[in-house]
Amino acid sequence: MKAVFCIVLSLLVNAYGRGGTDLGGKWHYIIDPFDVGLGKGLMMDAVPADKHSFFEYSYTGGKTLMVPGDWNHQDPELRWYEGVLWEARHFAASPSRGKRQILYFAGVSLRCDVFLNGVKVVSHEGAFTPFEADVTELIREGDNFLAVRVDNTRHPDSIPALSFDWWNYGGITRDVFLIEVPEVHVRDYFIRLQKGEKDRIVADVQLSVPDEGLQVGIEIPRLGFMKTLRTDKNGHARGSWKVRGLERWAPLAPMLYEVTLFCGEDRISDKIGFRDVAVDGTAVSVNGTPAFLKCISFHEEIPWESRRACSPEDASVLIDAALELGCNAIRLAHYPQNEHIVRLAEEKGLLIWEEIPLWQGIDFSSRETFRRAATYLEEMVGRDRNRCAIILWSISNETRPSPDRNAFLLDLLEEGRALDASRLFTSAFDGVHYDSDAAAFRIEDDPFAASLDVVGINKYMGWYAKWPGDPSSLQWEVLPDKPLVISEFGCEAKAGIFGQADVAWSWSEDYQVSLYRDNLEMFRHIENLAGVSPWILFDFRSPFRQHPVHQDYYNRKGLLSDRGEKKKAWYVMNEFYREK
Ligand code: GCB
Predict the structure, then answer these.
(1) Topology classification of domain 15-182
(2) Ligand 1 midpoint to CA 162 (Å)
């Protein structure tokens, strides 16, 4: 198979492993609904130069927000705010001579311009992926001023587009670091098990400089493994070796090795697992063994505090809840979630389906939107391709075939495969309907779905779709030669409402239970079923959900309520997973 390694040049891989200065904490902010801050000079802290000058703004004396953190939950005035807001702070630096200084943002929602000491250093769009700026030439010894113009306005050609079923949290929602690295450093690497093999490790390493003949060392102490590579004229080095005694990472049996890379003065360590993932008939197999995906989706949210999850503690809340349900897999809905979540899931042995937020309503005719989607994919894969827990890259959710859409998604899939040929590609579709002539569920003709390794089907039988017959008698003929994952099913229920098990609008836990039972019964007859992922772990905030009594701006399809209470359907699902 052709070896593929694409460097994601804009990203320093494993930024958390670099031990940079954490710039989190209290930042001052100014709400700028008319977007006049650029003209007023909000990229600088206001200091009048003489007796006659003044500024009509000031960070000092104003309110503060915690970074990382969305602004919506930190100030009641900002709960619904969509627009421009500036966040800024001073910080002290002591840059070492000859080193490079990198400002690294793990995620800002949803677009931003970053200014250091008054100078714009980077702009970024996309709430859920990291970006960085090399600020070596601008940073000063002593006090520095960092200002970020954050804008969470939705746009028709953005990703996601104008409306989506989750909260549009704004702000610097993830960590910010100042990282110091040697001039020549390891910028990117991809260390993995050779596809189809048990004991062959492959490493691609990219240095920050395109110099030939530089030495790169790779050490895995636990395996007694120490190898040296030399770079080619692009600063890229590659090697592959058979390794004795390699224990593979497997679902719920995670094995991670400490891997250290050296190059000159640079040294970076990571925890890396080795596993093989493949399609085997209609199953997804991990290390040659079929793995039925007992999966659950969640948003990056702590619902009882109406805020984005942003810390290692928050990650534990979500991952522990998935494990308690009996899962061996998670679907990170509907965007790349923070690294705390991804890494903790990997440490616990959860398989991961990770996706970019190409969610309904995307403008497939726009080349600009395509460029954004490709960048999203590149940033997600660039950040996470060393995470063996991720087995599925998903590139879209609920899109319908059309010439523009087909061309867009097929091109995107090609880009994805070029970035990472070691994993499976999927997407979630809602184009499955019961065909009464064929007496079976069928999917509309879709060249994109047909090109994927695994197909995800979102099907809300008993909620958005009426049952055409007895669930146990319903046949499925949906891409029968491919692994099929039910990537969403479920219905709304408000915790604490009981009875009326046959009335959808009762919003009762009993309706949810009967719907789950019916769906699980139907799934038993899907021959190519490779996994199931109910929608969703927790109730989550959404501007779509406007029923004042039952929803109150929460999507209530959680198996756990917005306060974390188990609904009755949780037990149904738990039993199903325990039996599987
Ligand atoms: C879907 C979407 C998901 C929604 C869900 C719902 O099909 O993929 O984002 O939240 O339905 O609750 O309607």
Answers:
(1) Jelly Rolls (2.60.120)
(2) 15
